[in-house]
UniProtKB/TrEMBL annotation:
<feature type="transmembrane region" description="Helical">
    <location>
        <begin position="557"/>
        <end position="577"/>
    </location>
</feature>
<feature type="transmembrane region" description="Helical">
    <location>
        <begin position="197"/>
        <end position="214"/>
    </location>
</feature>
<feature type="transmembrane region" description="Helical">
    <location>
        <begin position="444"/>
        <end position="468"/>
    </location>
</feature>
<feature type="transmembrane region" description="Helical">
    <location>
        <begin position="260"/>
        <end position="281"/>
    </location>
</feature>
<feature type="transmembrane region" description="Helical">
    <location>
        <begin position="134"/>
        <end position="154"/>
    </location>
</feature>
<dbReference type="InterPro" id="IPR029058">
    <property type="entry name" value="AB_hydrolase_fold"/>
</dbReference>
<feature type="transmembrane region" description="Helical">
    <location>
        <begin position="334"/>
        <end position="352"/>
    </location>
</feature>
<feature type="transmembrane region" description="Helical">
    <location>
        <begin position="512"/>
        <end position="537"/>
    </location>
</feature>
<feature type="transmembrane region" description="Helical">
    <location>
        <begin position="367"/>
        <end position="387"/>
    </location>
</feature>
<feature type="region of interest" description="Disordered">
    <location>
        <begin position="733"/>
        <end position="753"/>
    </location>
</feature>
<feature type="transmembrane region" description="Helical">
    <location>
        <begin position="293"/>
        <end position="314"/>
    </location>
</feature>
<keyword id="KW-0812">Transmembrane</keyword>
<feature type="transmembrane region" description="Helical">
    <location>
        <begin position="399"/>
        <end position="424"/>
    </location>
</feature>
<protein>
    <submittedName>
        <fullName>Integral membrane protein</fullName>
    </submittedName>
</protein>
<keyword id="KW-1133">Transmembrane helix</keyword>
<keyword id="KW-0472">Membrane</keyword>
<feature type="region of interest" description="Disordered">
    <location>
        <begin position="1"/>
        <end position="29"/>
    </location>
</feature>
Length: 784
């Protein structure tokens, strides 16, 4: 996007160009066709999309905008010049995801993004409204446990390891002099255990505040754009999908409620960590009755706060049937403030003078992390039961994991959260303790979870080896297919092998459900084993004492290697994010991750990275509607590549039926069915895609066998003309030809416009939309 800004500055395009009659033109101009190009993952520049170094911005801002060639800026005033070709426009939205290096830090919010995806992975089950609501409720509760896990990890580091264990040990404070003022040997005011905990609570409280601030700021910057007003507000799914509902792309009320609840949950977690340690000391025999009473009252207030948070999360889901502009102002404001007040009371209570109180051992981290792990496993099992029930109501053979994609993804989100929280705890403990063993260290459960990582990685390596063997066998089959596709060529063994290998590797995308299923199942089982092992209070190496030497050695090796790997994984996250500050290519790579993962609104976790589609879909809807309504005979071809085809389909569903009937859709390299249709069957399943084909005037889809992302959409011919053109040849020519005098490259997922089929299909779509021509659909055989 930096190149785009440089060109725009040279062309004087810093502000939107005023066109005659506005961007849509005056009502007197008829018969002009518009081709609205939407790019895919990774982003590009308007100059590359329009194949012209001189472009002007006609609408939008620095975040997302529509561009034209400078020569086409006044196309509406010259309709005769565009009788035989469309006016090309480029919608550039890459700055929504990868334009700023600071957004690379969103990588640390990856578990929140993953659990948010699970909300949208439910199976399609019309007529099961209560079961669907239960599915959403379970995902929101699982998301809440992730927030508590992250804040609990921060409490473990700041309160337990630093303020309780290290600051209370003379050897540790001697190594880390910055903690010296907290040491009991100094006898200072902050040396009391409760006061140390109260001071350290500022770290997890600040983390919670930062998450609240980022969620609130990103909502205003990216997702606050209201969809186009509509007269119809259906109370049912439009065309087999909820993406056509008026309020689907505007979840302000739910995000505000969840943000308040998760912020309060984080603050209550900190308050519990501070107050529970003091309350346990006050309950000892002979302790002060007043402090014991205050401790019990504080714990009762914390329990009441937890009940309030859970009630807010459970009470209400998304409102999609109408544009919900209201927010629960009192709830959004007072729930976090009440939790903050309880945290302040807990800090005051813990800081009270308690003679004889010393910090020994660990805080109650084992019980807290064990309860979280058990609750997350219970929620995954319940979610799997609900998802399976929904899938059996209307089985979809193409759905990933037979409807269990959501529970599997929730499991992976919990595992990611565990790796990140455990990695921080392990590395901080090693840093504070050094080569000594003066500290008790992090909770035993985190050590057991770390020990489960080596066998999990070994299983994944075995699975990857099996998939590699399958790809190798498929490559041998493709060798013959390549020779049949180019029958009149003098075959080159190296070129044939390269084409066959590319085709074989492209099919590995279809094995993603197997990888997710194996990983999720193994993670759930190993997590259950780790939880059971931690109940003994001993680490894996200690628990293996007295057994066979081989078993004991394996346990100790797994413990040491897992501890190193879990820390290395977290360090990898941090260094990758830091690298993105200096490396544009790293920023672009991370941006691609968000292009795929943040398409969906924040329906389960408010701290997930922002949803770019809540800006992009309204942008496209407004542009298409204003163009088609500007005059009689206006034609529009919506041309989407890769993720752009998903945005294009979502925007088309948002149009009114009248506007939708004047739009043609051209998709290429599209993951609409191959990825979205399998993983999100309730919104992009066969019924939804068939309805889109029926509602818009016409739709064609281009794909290649070498494309690892795009594929056919498999809309049946009985429901209208075939959407899919037969797979395009890649490369365009096997050897040197008069049209391709130099060796043609393998294009894979990119540069579909280079294939003559692209221009051919665009001409056919425009011909279908000619003014005055009735909407008769041609025979599928004629199109092929």
């Amino acid at each position: 996007m930096d190149r785009a800004r440089e060109h725009m500055a040279m062309d004087g395009a810093d502000a939107p160009r005023e066109l005659p009659g506005g961007p849509g033109g005056g009502p007197g101009h008829t018969g002009i066709a518009l081709e609205l190009l939407v790019h895919g993952v990774g982003g590009t520049t308007p100059q590359d999309m329009l194949d012209d170094p001189r472009t002007v911005r006609i609408s939008g801002d620095d975040t997302a905008a529509v561009f034209r060639r400078a020569d086409d800026a006044d196309a509406e005033d010259r309709p005769d010049d565009y009788r035989d070709r469309p006016v090309p426009e480029a919608y550039v939205w890459c700055n929504l995801t990868s334009g700023n290096s600071a957004r690379a830090l969103w990588l640390l919010l990856l578990p929140f993004m993953v659990v948010n995806l699970a909300h949208w992975m439910r199976p399609a089950a019309p007529g099961r409204a209560r079961t669907v609501r239960l599915y959403g409720l379970l995902v929101r509760l699982a998301a809440l446990t992730l927030t508590v896990l992250f804040v609990a990890a921060a409490c473990e580091v700041a309160l337990d390891l630093a303020a309780w264990q290290c600051a209370g040990t003379r050897a540790c404070t001697d190594r880390h002099t910055w903690l010296g003022f907290l040491s009991p040997a100094e006898g200072g005011w902050w040396s009391r255990p409760g006061r140390r905990l109260a001071l350290a609570a500022a770290v997890p409280a600040a983390l919670t505040g930062l998450l609240w601030y980022l969620s609130r700021r990103t909502w205003g910057a990216y997702e606050s754009q209201q969809p186009m007003p509509r007269q119809d507000e259906p109370d049912h799914e439009t065309g087999g999908t909820a993406l056509g509902r008026p309020g689907f792309w505007y979840g302000r009320r739910l995000v505000a409620r969840l943000r308040a609840a998760h912020t309060a949950a984080g603050l209550l977690t900190v308050a519990a960590a501070v107050g529970s340690a003091a309350a346990r000391f006050d309950r000892r025999p002979g302790g002060p009755a007043v402090l014991d009473t205050l401790g019990r009252l504080l714990e009762a207030a914390l329990v009441a706060g937890v009940v309030a948070v859970v009630w807010v999360v459970c009470r209400r889901g998304r409102s999609e049937n109408r544009l919900d502009r209201e927010i629960d102002a009192h709830l959004v404001r007072w729930l976090p403030l009440a939790a903050l007040a309880l945290l302040a009371l807990a800090a005051v209570y813990a800081g009270w003078e308690r003679p004889g109180w010393q910090s020994t051992g660990r805080l109650a981290g084992d019980a807290a992390f064990g309860a979280l792990a058990f609750l997350q496993g219970l929620l995954v099992v319940a979610l799997a039961v609900v998802a399976r029930t929904l899938h059996r109501a209307r089985p979809d053979p193409r759905a990933a994991l037979r409807g269990l994609g959501g529970p599997a993804v929730v499991t992976l989100a919990g595992a990611l959260g565990g790796v990140m929280s455990g990695g921080v705890s392990q590395r901080v403990a090693d840093w504070l303790d050094g080569t000594d063993s003066s500290l008790a260290g992090p909770p035993v459960l985190l050590t057991w979870q770390a020990s489960a990582i080596p066998p999990l990685l070994l299983l994944l390596l075995l699975l990857c080896a099996l998939l590699a063997r399958r790809a190798w066998l498929l490559r041998r089959t493709e060798l013959g297919a390549v020779e049949r596709d180019y029958p009149h060529e003098a075959h080159d063994t190296a070129r044939t092998r390269r084409i066959a290998s590319t085709r074989a590797m492209a099919t590995l995308t279809d094995r993603a459900p197997l990888i997710v299923a194996v990983t999720a199942t193994a993670t759930l089982l190993l997590g259950a084993a780790a939880l059971a092992g931690s109940l003994s209070g001993r680490t894996p190496g200690d628990a293996a004492d007295g057994t066979y030497a081989f078993v004991q050695g394996a346990a100790q090796t797994a413990q040491a290697l897992g501890s190193w790997l879990i820390g290395f994984g977290f360090i990898l996250f941090v260094t990758w994010g830091r690298r993105a500050y200096k490396d544009a290519s790293a920023r672009r790579t991370i941006g691609i991750l968000w292009d795929v993962g943040t398409f969906w609104p924040r329906a389960a976790h408010p701290f997930a990275p922002p949803c770019y589609a809540e800006r992009a879909v309204p942008d496209l809807t407004w542009r298409m509607a204003t163009w088609t309504r500007a005059g009689e005979g206006r034609r529009l071809v919506l041309s989407g590549h890769s993720q752009g085809s998903v945005l294009a389909a979502a925007a088309a569903w948002q149009l009114t039926p009248e506007d939708r009937g004047r739009v043609a859709l051209l998709t290429y390299g599209s993951p609409l069915e191959r990825l979205y249709g399998r993983w999100f069957p309730a919104h992009f399943g066969p019924r939804a895609l068939a309805s889109l084909h029926a509602d818009i005037d016409c739709w064609r889809n281009l794909h290649r066998a070498t494309d690892p992302i795009g594929g056919p959409v498999h809309v049946l011919r009985e429901q209208g003309p075939a959407v899919d053109r037969e797979a395009l040849k890649d490369p365009l020519a096997y050897g040197r030809t008069p049209e391709q005098p130099l060796p043609a490259p393998l294009l894979g997922h990119g540069d579909y416009q280079a294939d003559p089929a692209f221009a051919q299909e665009r001409r056919r779509l425009l011909a279908r939309l000619r003014p005055g021509v009735p909407g008769q659909r041609p025979d599928p055989a004629d199109e092929d």
